[in-house]
């Protein structure tokens, strides 16, 4: 019942728009700061996360630390591009309300990656808000470009299907 309320209520879409804009600004601001500075380097963060794997109560689980050691650190140059541009594009998508579900899914993925790496900051609150936006689906982007893009995309995607399977059968 609550999920249906999130997905269909027009007043909820207004609240979701406010939350979407808030998260969008957070992501856009963080990404643009890294892009415009031009000196972003994830190496220190990644090595710091690996150090948090040890001790009596490690804040980074071994499976995640091993991923950071084996994948992220060897390809840190790629991560130095993906992280700032990912943050910026997630923010842009959320602010414009286009590809809203995909944008919030990618934002949640980054939030979880940061939390798996032993940081907290605003990530838990961003995850909580993001889950509401993700569950609401299209309703979260109704006051945004998804209002026009989603129907257009569906028409283009299912154009051939409608010819093969008429609706009035």
SSE arrangement:
Elements: H1 2-8, H2 10-37, H3 43-51, H4 62-72, H5 76-96, H6 100-116, H7 123-136, H8 146-157, H9 159-164
Helix pairs in contact: 1-7, 2-5, 2-7, 3-4, 5-6, 6-7
Short description:
With 169 residues, the protein is an all-alpha fold. The chain is built from nine helices and no strands. The protein has helices at 2-8, 10-37, 43-51, 62-72, 76-96, 100-116, 123-136, 146-157, 159-164.
Task: Summarize the structure in words.
The structure is a single chain. The longest helix has 28 residues, at 10-37. The mean pLDDT is 92. This protein is elongated. The chain has 169 residues and is mainly alpha-helical. It contains nine helices and no strands. Helix 6 packs antiparallel against helix 7.
Taking all Cα atoms into account, the compactness measure Rg is 19 Å
- Biggest sheet features: none
Tell me the series of helices and strands, N- to C-terminal. HHHHHHHHH
Amino-to-carboxy terminus distance: 31 Å
The assigned structural class equals mainly alpha
Would you count the extended β strands for me?
A: 0
Helix content: over 70%
Global mean pLDDT: 92
Residue stretches low in confidence (pLDDT < 50, at least 5 long) are: none
- Work out the strand percent: under 5%
The 3D shape can be described as elongated
Keywords:
169 residues, mainly alpha
């Amino acid at each position: 019942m609550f999920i249906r309320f999130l997905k269909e209520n027009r007043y909820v879409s207004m609240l979701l728009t406010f939350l979407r804009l808030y998260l969008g600004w957070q992501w856009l601001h963080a990404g643009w700061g890294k892009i415009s500075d031009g000196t972003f380097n994830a190496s220190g963060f990644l090595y710091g996360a690996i150090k948090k794997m040890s001790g009596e109560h490690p804040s980074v689980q071994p499976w995640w630390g091993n991923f950071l050691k084996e994948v992220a650190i060897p390809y840190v140059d790629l991560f130095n591009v993906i992280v700032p541009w990912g943050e910026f594009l997630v923010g842009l998508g959320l602010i414009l309300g286009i590809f809203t579900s995909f944008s919030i899914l990618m934002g949640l993925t980054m939030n979880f990656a940061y939390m798996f790496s032993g940081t907290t900051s605003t990530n838990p609150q961003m995850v909580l808000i993001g889950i509401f936006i993700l569950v609401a689906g299209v309703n979260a982007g109704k006051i945004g470009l998804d209002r026009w893009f989603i129907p257009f995309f569906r028409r283009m995607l299912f154009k051939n299907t409608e010819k093969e399977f008429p609706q009035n059968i």
